[in-house]
Specification:
This protein is mainly alpha-helical and 395 residues long. The chain is built from 16 helices and no strands.
């Protein structure tokens, strides 16, 4: 049990900043690899685009399932930092082995290893963040973490572009990605402090039942509805191609998307602490609606690709910050990692459905059908969050 006033001590903010820089250097490392990985798998390892899709889909689905398991385990053993370290170490150590991959099955094994590391660390890390800062400042804390995280996602691809332009081979890029990964592990070991409580001896199902209170279930339902239509950035890049963007411009569109994501994180989190996280989440859903509407209606001008990317990046900055900051408000304090695990399980499963459906609709019925589907789910989610907020006021 924390003593009154302990969470507001500056040392507790240190965890937020330190974990932010851990994520910065890990994303720096990850995006160095991921920015060239599709080309590496298809061109050098001679895999088909279908195989590339299978690699990414399988890796992400395994990642989201395991996040629930790691969250439950973290709550039961009363540890956060050790589990977070194991997760970051797994990802940062395994990624450089892309440099020695000889087939797409090698790449699949390495990619799964990377995502397993992410799944191990994510729920305990978010719980550690939420336990390191007062409840009334959670939005700013998650916004700061998200901004540092995404800053790494901008710097990594830029450095990779410079290295490739100077003549460095793709396989060498994978080896070099280990350097920022090692820095991330050093920061985690030295600067991040443990915040978890006592080991739990109650049954796992009892813990899950304790988390699945009515308000939390209602919140997960709304988040799930939205996630059923929340396609990922790949479709924004596909739209950019339809608007006439060649591959080089596509990378600039992706960079602008990441910049918007980064810039919006802290302001969105701070605003959510002031006016309420549910209200700001509604703004995020509205931004996704706008990005889908623009994608469906704008045609024939390359400039539109950058506009759509900026709006879509703003949606990501708001939603991915505020949703994570919202979870602790509806979960028991001693079961936050379990709550995050359930959250990631629901959102991840719905996200897989979203991308499958959007891709299928686009393939067989055109982009308008795909974006219309996402417009419909975002409208339902906005109605859902309004009903949920009204329910809380009545309660």
């Amino acid at each position: 049990m924390r003593r009154r006033g302990e969470v507001s001590h500056p040392r507790n903010l240190r965890n937020v900043i330190a974990l932010g820089f851990v994520s910065f250097f890990t994303d720096f490392s990850t995006e160095m690899s991921l920015s060239v990985l599709p080309f590496f798998i298809v061109e050098e390892l001679k895999a088909t685009k279908t195989v590339l899709g299978i690699i990414e889909g399988l890796a992400e689905s395994i990642s989201h399932v395991l996040r629930m398991i790691s969250g439950i385990f973290s709550d039961r053993v009363g540890k956060r930092k050790l589990i977070v370290f194991i997760g970051y170490a797994s990802s940062n150590v395994v990624k450089p082995f892309f440099a020695v991959a000889r087939s797409w099955t090698d790449a699949l094994a390495i990619r799964i290893g990377d995502r397993v590391g992410k799944s191990i660390r994510t729920s305990p890390r978010d719980a550690l963040l939420s336990e390191s800062i007062p409840k009334e400042h959670l939005g700013k804390a998650f916004g700061l973490h998200r901004t540092l995280d995404q800053s790494g996602a901008i710097v990594g691809p830029i450095l990779t572009f410079i290295l490739l332009f100077s003549g460095i081979a793709m396989r060498e890029i994978f080896w070099l990605s280990f350097i920022p990964g090692l820095i991330a592990l050093a920061i985690l070991l030295i600067f991040v402090k443990e915040k978890a409580g006592a080991r739990r001896h109650i049954g796992i199902m009892n813990d899950i039942k304790s988390v699945l209170r009515r308000d939390f279930v209602l919140l997960l339902s709304v988040l799930g509805v939205f996630s059923m239509g929340a396609f990922n950035y790949s479709f924004i890049l596909l739209k950019a191609g339809e608007l006439g963007a060649p591959a080089a411009f596509g990378s600039l569109v992706y960079t602008l998307l990441q910049v918007a994501h980064t810039v919006v994180g802290i302001p969105a989190g701070a605003l959510s602490d002031i006016v309420g996280k549910e209200r700001v989440l509604l703004m995020g859903y509205a931004a996704f609606f706008a990005a889908s509407l623009l994608s469906m209606t704008l045609q024939g001008n390359l400039v539109y690709a950058f506009l759509i990317a900026a709006v879509y990046g703003s949606y990501m900055g708001i939603v991915e910050t505020v949703q994570r900051a919202l979870i602790p408000e509806y979960a028991p304090s001693h079961l936050r990692a379990t709550a995050y695990g359930l959250y990631y399980l629901i959102v991840g499963a719905c996200f897989m459905v979203a991308n499958t459906l959007v891709g299928t609709l686009w393939e067989y019925y055109g982009a308008s059908a795909a974006f219309t589907y996402s417009l419909a789910t975002s409208v339902l989610a906005m109605i859902g969050i309004l009903i949920f907020t009204k329910h809380l006021k009545r309660a």
